[in-house]
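seq as requested:
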Amino acid sequence: MASEVSGLLTVGYDAPAFLSKLAATLRAMHPGVTLAFVDGDNESVKQGLVDGKFDAIYFVEDVPDPRIEAATLIFAPTYCLCRKDHPIALSSAARP
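struct tokens:
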């Protein structure tokens, strides 16, 4: 017997860039689910998941946490933005 998923899903997040797309996808897949998003930093949302405050979290994984099973949604390289005359920009490490 198939059943529709419904109820409240509380999601903690640190990375809001793709939140609207995530919400739209979840709503399309499960229209009976009500979403509640709670903003925080990486550490507070991870701790909130462990403590049961959130059903799921959306964050940028910095150091893997053995208490949390994570699935990579996207890979985004890390950037350092600075003036073109800044010492970091002038270093050989900054050149491709």
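The mean pLDDT is 87.
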